[in-house]
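In response to a reviewer's request, we include the raw inputs and outputs for one of the modeled complexes. The two entities were modeled together in a single run.
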Amino acid sequence: MTGTLAKKQAWAGLIFASPWFIGFSAFIAYPVLASVYFSFCDYSVLKPPVYVGAENYTDLIHDELFWTTVRNTLVYASMTLPASMLTALILAMLLNAKVKGMAVYRTMFFIPALVPQVSLAILWSWILNGDHGVLNAFIGPIYHLFHKSPPNWMGTPEWSKPAMVLMSVWSVGNAVLIYLASLQDVPTSLIEAAELDGANGWKKTLNVTLPMISPVILFNGIMGIIGTLQVFTGPYIMFPNGQPAHSTYFYTEYLYDNAFKYHKMGYASAMGWILFVMILILTFVSIRLSEKHVHYQGS
Amino acid sequence: MASQKQLSKTNRFFVQFALIALTLAFAFPFVWMLSTAVKPIEETMKDPPVWIPSHFQFNNFWDAIKYGQETLGYIPFLVYARNTIVLAALVVIGSVVSNSLVAYSFSRLKWPGRDVAFAITIATMMVPFPVLMVPSFGLFRALDWIGTYRPLWVPAWFGSAFSIFLLRQFFRTIPFELSEAAKIDGASEWGIFRNIVLPLSKPALAVVALFSFMGVWNDFLGPLIYLLDQKTFTLSLGLQFYQSQAGGTAWNLLMAASTIVILPLIILFFFTQRLFIQGIAVTGLK
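The model returned the following structure tokens for the whole complex.
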């Protein structure tokens, strides 16, 4: 009797899950496998793919623009990840201090995260506009004190990436909410115990709070790596063609251009796979490096 | 909460001060956007910047909405808005239906290989979209779907890893005794799903609906790849198109257009704040 019931349930399980079996096969498994094959092919979509061996990969090694986009993307990630993670953590800790009006502050920090990427990029290109940017109108006087002019955010290669960092720091609201939720989960008893041992505010943060939320910090860090390495919409709109001087030409933009502008689909597939491997390596490295510092409760 | 109370008066003052300063900094881009959106064009270029326009030009919103109407023969922003809403409706319905079915299977039904299948599902979240982009395009091209909305909504009807995960976490918290009791009364799995699990999961379903709606409203790369005719554009794509045509000149109209794209999301957020915050918090908490 139990046997037939179990069988019945197994059938039901497979039927209920069947949409995902189809979705997974058609929209994930097939594209992933096909892109491995395409990455070894000359493929323009218009004609069937022709196997060319590792040519795409060897071409990529000699492609200067490819390396430029790799460098840009890694530099951007190494600037924006620490900046936005730190901002999110500080904001969440301030919010967790239980002062009056917490809900209002939380809303204000979160709302920028709702702004669609396209609007975000347009809004910030206006704020950082070369001649009429409002940010420089603010900070200009400080620069003038030292007989300097404020940064030309949109027009110089040194400032174009910091401009994007500003934009991503502003829209850090999701991470703030995630940190805040985990901060509120830290047992008060632990903090009280630390207080009894004479720990001050800074020590409590360093020795109790941060270790307790470390899995969430790692999680946010990994999601951040995956997201920033794929950055596309912001720079595509803010800095058309990777201007100035290719300083904002990012990996996914070059991949997109290869695929849909130059119809080098095989080449683009190879780039996709290299990106995937980069993400896997960086994720693995961050998990390994953080092993000593991440504490999982109950393990 | 004892530790919170011990926050000294000076610290409390410092925290409050920092929060107010940061709030102003975070509000500043929005204020500038709104200020620009209602300004006459001459006042957008003043130095020092004009925060409060000499007269409020609310006409800018309407001008932004119908920008290009003469050459196109239709009011572009209304068409984009309609396209986006239709697409969003298809995606939202599809993802709520498909993901709740799949999550029910992963959380409340036992079948061989289930946990492995779930682990693979979670792992797919690591696959970057650029890897899928080229073969998916080839697939949709073979189906003759390029230039239609189908590549943008049909996949939503077949589940997505993130939503499956989210709903599974929620379904697991519903007491299994309820299912057992219903089974003794002769209910089928479909009946349990439909009459017990779904009604108890309204908040989680709403989160999935909300996130998939936001996804459509936000998506730029998808429509950029698959939509060809300007008449079929979504708001995000339309806004970019608008910017590349009018950009660098009519900043007041551009800000008015941006406000129109952003505002519905903010309104939606205010009506669903609780869901939003819980939904996002869950994503960080395994």
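As requested, we also summarize the result in words. Chain B touches chain A through 98 residues (CB under 8 Å). Chain B has two domains: 2-65, 69-246.
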